[in-house]
Each structure stands twice: as structure tokens, then as C-alpha cells.
Amino acid sequence: MERNFTEQELVRREKAEKLKELGLDAFGQRYDKTDYAVDIKEKYKDVEHDQFESMNDTAKVAGRIMFIRKMGKASFFTIKDKTGPIQIYISINDIGEDNYNLFKSADIGDIVGVYGKIMKTNTGEITIKCLEYTHLVKALKPLPEKFHGLTDIEERYRRRYLDLIMNDESKRVAFMRPRIIRCIQNFLDKQGFTEVETPILTTLLTGASARPFVTHHNAQDLDMYLRIALELNLKRLLVGGMERVYEIGRTFRNEGMDLQHNPEFTMMEVYQAYSNLEGMMELTENMYKTIANEVCGKTTFNYLGHEINLDGEWKRISMTDAIKEKTGIDFKAITDLNECLNLAKEHGIELEEHEKQYGHIINKFFEKYVEETLIEPTFLYGHPIEISPLTKKDPEDPRFTQRFELFISGKECANAYTELNDPIDQLERFEAQLKEKDMGNEEANDIDMDFIEALEYGMPPAGGIGYGIDRLVMLFTEQDSIRDVLLFPTMKPRE
């Protein structure tokens, strides 16, 4: 493929050829670094300038050159490793003329290794005095000057490798995300949960209300879905006696993209035998507070324009009471569907044919008047049965279910059930979903008869919950866009 190179790129390629002529590998070999920039700075930050004269501490680092200030026979440059930058002092007197000339041919963006003595400059900056200089990799392209600027935001996501080089905030989030996930795993493992893996490819659309991605298995000539949820397989494991299980895995929904949604995302679902909705609330609140304290070292976060405090007891309110607070309408006291339909019309709420039901109308009122007002952590419970096909009924009012959603800054962060383990009721719910599909609801569930059969063997009473891991990471890293917590978000191809 024919390519057009800039003048800078041509010069860099010439330098790569000259390195080969000198018998050097322009793209490097193994280099056994022993130290990181942040550790060196932390260890010596309180050592006075004069004390270094009597010390002979050394370090061996490697990283990308981010800055060069050449000054004849001595120079300063900065390299950046995964922990951050550190300054290097290099002199022809310390490394010899040949190696110093090798350094002088270096460009910003090259990767090098440095062994040297720890020192502190007169301005107080921790610096490595280079005693051995090793060329590792010649960068054939120059680094962008303003890559993290607003005008380049799409390119930041497309070329995440450059974003990580140029943008310290992106690198902070990239390293913090796995720490958060590891904290979650440790938290659950200590409570006796077992992490498992379940299939991504499935033949049925179950576990959530969402539009799927469809693929084809050639060997079996079989159309399949990429999973939209993890639920039913994990509940099969409860039937099998595993009792406490969780999975953190990629999930796929063929729907829109915005600041909160990506077509492929990471979900965690947790199931605990012999627990219930209350148990899931306790688990969730404790898990969030553990992450805040152990990973972030604070409990107050700026998220989506609001200051969120995770301390104290989290608010709990039913969906109907929340609607009543905002509108004065008490749906729990209403039993006539026509009255609900008239209220929807009076409030300008449009309904699809399959939504002309008691529970769907309540949910529409919630979405219009309540959802965005739930700023501080709030457990919203008591969802109508029509929008909760996998949830145990409220024994006091079977129009509602034992379900909650956690809302923070007006966004759903978790969805929990007292799990439905009655196979007769579950089959009726599945059949109701099929009717909704016939009425035009593209997100309605299929009937999974194997799951019904599993329930007929007996699933213990249980609590279950699903978390959007990306949204959770957004909160703890204080990011407003899901693209900023995904290393490789879904993007349209370049024109």
C-alpha cells in the first residue's frame, strides 16, 4: 500500500536506518528495568540536595522520551513510564562521545533505557544522572502536540494508545478500573461467593429486556444471539447447589449509544441463595463503600454534575411513593386501568399498544417525573409486575414485585430482585412476555423451557442483582462519559 510520509516521518525513518548501520536494533531487545518513576520520586522526595553527594543510590528505568533540552555536552530529558515522568541528566563526560551522539539523534517519542545515579537538581527536582544510555525503540511518527484537546476527542477514543501517552487523566482511569474490579472480586470472595463464567453465545433471548446482536454458527447452521444478560445460567447454578455465585463479563445490546451506553459493556450479576431484596441492598451499599475507602480513599465524588456522598444510610423509597411525591398521584390506590390511561393522557404521556397496562403506565410516570431527580444514592423498590418478568411478587400486593434499582445522579446503577423461583409463575410470566412480543415489544423475553425445568427441581429462595460495571467505574473515577472508562469504545470507522 502506497503511503505518503511527512518530512518529520522521513527523517525518523532515515535515523532508523542509521541505527541499523551502527549495528543497533532500531526497535529494541529485552531491557531489564528495575525501577519506576513514581517509586523513585516517593523514596527520595524528602532527601535534601546536599545529602545526595554522600549517597550512591542508583536506578534502572525505561520509558518514552517526552521532553529534550539539549545543551552542548550535557542535556536534560524526561522519560515517562507507566507511573509517570522522571527527569534524566545526561553528559558526554559520563557516557562517552559515541553514546552521547546516539542520545543526540533521539527524538521525542523514542523509547530508551537509562541506568544512573539518583540526584536532585538545584531547583529540587529528583533526577537520574545517566551512566548508561540504551536505545530501545525508534518512534517513526512524532507525538501530537494537542491530542487531548476538545477538537480531537473522537481521535482520543479511536487511537487510545496516543491518548494514554498524552493524557495523564486517561492513564489514571485505565489503571484505576482494574483496581476497582479487583476490589469487587476480593469483597465478594471474602463473603463466600464463587466467580464463574457462562456462555456469551445463546439461542434464546432471556434475562433482560433488550434488543440483541444476532450471529450465525456455521457448523450447526444455527442463528444465535450475543447475550444480553447473565441471569438464567447463574440461577441454574443456584439450582445445582453453588449457593453464592457471580460473573463479571461482556454483555451486548444492539441499541443506541450515548454518554451512558455502549453496545458492548461489562456487567456483573450476583446471586445469593437464602437471601432476598434486603440482603442485596446491604451487599450493594457495603460494596460501594468498600470501593470508595479501599481504592479511592474518599467517600464523596463529583459525578454527572453533582456531588455524591456515599456515607450514611442510603435512601429507600417505593416507585409509587416517589411518583406521589412529585405528582400527587397515588397509583397504589388506583385499581381501574381506564383511570390510569386517562391520567397518562392528561400528563402528555404517549403509550405504545403493549404499554397500555397498569405497570407500564406507572413506569412511564416514573421516567418522566422522578428518575432524573434521584441524585443521592437511592434504592427505588416496588416495580410493577409487567416490567419485572423474573421477579418474585410482593406478597402484600401482587401487582408489584420485590425488586429495586439503585439510582445515583439520576442514573440507574444496579437492578436487584428477590428472585422468582416458582416455575409455574415463571412460565406464566414468560407467556405474558410472548404476548407483548406479538403486540410489538421487540425487547420481550423468549420462553426458556430448560430454565423452567431447572426451577422444577427446586431453586432455593435467593436474592440477585446486576451492576453496570462501566457506570460504577464512571462514578469512582468521576467521569461523565462511558467512553472515558472503556479503553476501546465502539466507534464508527473513519471516513
CATH level-1 class of the largest domain: Alpha Beta
For the record, what is the CATH homologous superfamily label of the largest domain? Bira Bifunctional Protein, Domain 2
- Strand neighbour order, sheet with most strands: 6-10-11-20-19-18-15-14
The number of helical runs is 15
Which secondary-structure class do the elements indicate?
Answer: alpha+beta
Average of pLDDT: 94
Shape, per Cα inertia axes: elongated
Helix content: 25-40%
Strand content: 25-35%
- Report the count of strand segments: 20
Number of individual domains: 2
Q: Please give the oligomerization state of what you see.
A: single chain
Here the CATH topology of the largest domain equals BirA Bifunctional Protein, domain 2
| pLDDT < 50 stretches | none
Q: Mind summarizing the main beta sheet?
A: 8 strands, mixed
The CATH architecture term of the largest domain is 2-Layer Sandwich
Radius of gyration: 29 Å
Keyphrases for this structure?
20 strands; BirA Bifunctional Protein, domain 2; five-stranded mixed beta barrel; OB fold (Dihydrolipoamide Acetyltransferase, E2P); 2 domains; 15 helices; 26% strand; single chain; 495 residues
